[in-house]
Write a structure and sequence with these properties.
- The chain has about 325 residues and is mostly helical.
- It folds into two domains: about 210 residues, 3-Layer(aba) Sandwich (Rossmann fold); about 90 residues, Orthogonal Bundle (Tyrosyl-Transfer RNA Synthetase).
- The protein is about 55% helix and about 5% strand.
- It has a three-stranded parallel beta sheet, with helices on both faces. It has a two-stranded parallel sheet with strand order 4-5.
- α1 links the parallel β1 and β2.
- The longest helix has 30 residues.
- It is globular.
- The structure holds tryptophan (TRP).
- Tryptophan binds next to β1, α7 and β4.
Length: about 325
């Protein structure tokens, strides 16, 4: 029998989900799930969030909002396991074991820690340092085999593979699969509307730099109209976008939203200026994101519904993770009196 193909992915609970989250994560998850060739487990990773300071009330809200955003994007909670991480204690249990498998040297190489800790490393939390061990535990508590992630998580996923392999060989058991990354294409790297060289980010001070998933149609259109561009018409080929980060970003967004390649978009718009292109892009963005934002706001307001989904997803997750933890505890030599 072929081994189970099991997808695990996680997203941090943060307010202001953007078009980048939609195109880079949520839409892909909904599509993978719809393919029906994988079992899908999707997690709002609130325990990862507290590696940096959080406001408790905002964290709770953001957890619901992200779950609502996923459902609004087409993730079907009847057809996957959707839950928040802290509800399932098995993640933290396995993470502790992995803290005792992973080596300081491995974690010292993580570039994201260096970026996030910045200059004041002494003051970073220990949690931020061991965050990749928790991420490995997220995946491996379910023996996840496939992990859709953005480029920035590739190194963490490699660490998860190293941990899985090290655990298996330390205890001479074949407990964990080596999870494989499923990196989505560059088209899903959505950049700031104000600076095409920077990632679209919820933490950017200017709200004009991003499209939030909950933006009203008029706001979406306005942000696109005001997006930074250059005076040149669109080129014939993508080579012509190489030195034009803002143009490349808008063409990329158009391509992603319309499920085309950038080449196909240029075939349609080559020779036209942004005066013609932007209204088309605005219409497209409004038609795709408008209904998702409306649904997301409706769901976020219905806390009873969202909490019910997360609770039943969490219960299913626990049923899946429990036997894996037992297997691990047995291998490690923990007495189960
Ligand atoms: N670290 C991921 C991020 O910041 C989120 C995450 C946590 C995750 N656990 C995971 C992603 C497990 C994939 C699998 O984007």
């Amino acid at each position: 029998m072929a081994p189970t193909r099991r997808i695990f992915s996680g997203i941090q609970p943060s307010g202001n989900l953007t078009l980048g989250n939609y195109l880079g994560a949520m839409r892909n998850w909904a599509r993978l799930q719809a393919e029906q060739s994988y079992e899908c487990i999707f997690c709002v990773v609130d325990q990862h969030a507290i590696t940096v300071p959080q406001n408790p009330a905002e964290l709770r809200n953001a957890t619901r909002e992200v779950a609502a955003g996923m459902i609004a994007s087409g993730v079907d909670p009847d057809d996957c396991v959707l839950f928040n991480q802290s509800y399932v204690p098995e993640h933290a249990q396995l993470a502790w074991v992995f803290n005792c498998v992973a080596r300081m040297g491995w974690l010292n190489r993580m570039t994201q820690f260096k970026e996030k800790a910045g200059k004041d490393r002494e003051n970073a939390t220990v949690g931020l340092f061991v965050y990749p061990n928790l991420m490995a535990a997220d995946i491996l508590a379910y023996k996840g085999t496939h992990v859709p992630v953005g480029d920035d998580q590739k190194q963490h996923l490699e660490l998860a593979r190293d941990i899985a392999q090290a655990f298996n060989s330390m205890f001479e058991k074949d407990i964990f699969p080596l999870p494989e990354p499923q990196i989505f294409g560059a088209a899903t790297r959505v950049m700031s509307l104000r600076d095409g060289t920077r990632k679209m980010s919820k933490s950017e001070p200017s709200d004009m730099s991003r499209i939030n998933m909950t933006d009203e149609a008029e706001v979406i259109a306005q942000k696109i109209r005001k997006a930074k561009t250059d005076p040149e018409p669109l080129p014939e080929t993508t080579d012509g976008l190489a030195e034009r980060p803002e143009a490349r970003n808008l063409v990329g967004i158009y391509a992603a939203l319309s499920d085309q390649t950038p080449e196909q978009v240029l075939a349609e718009f080559a020779g036209q200026g942004f005066g013609a292109f932007k209204p088309k892009l605005a219409d497209l963005a409004v038609s795709v994101m408008g209904p998702i934002g409306t649904e997301m706001k409706r769901l976020s307001a219905d806390t009873t519904y969202v909490d019910g989904i997360l609770r039943s997803g969490g219960d299913r997750a626990r049923d899946l993770a429990r036997p894996v933890i037992e297997e691990v505890y047995d291998a490690v030599g923990f007495l189960r009196p």
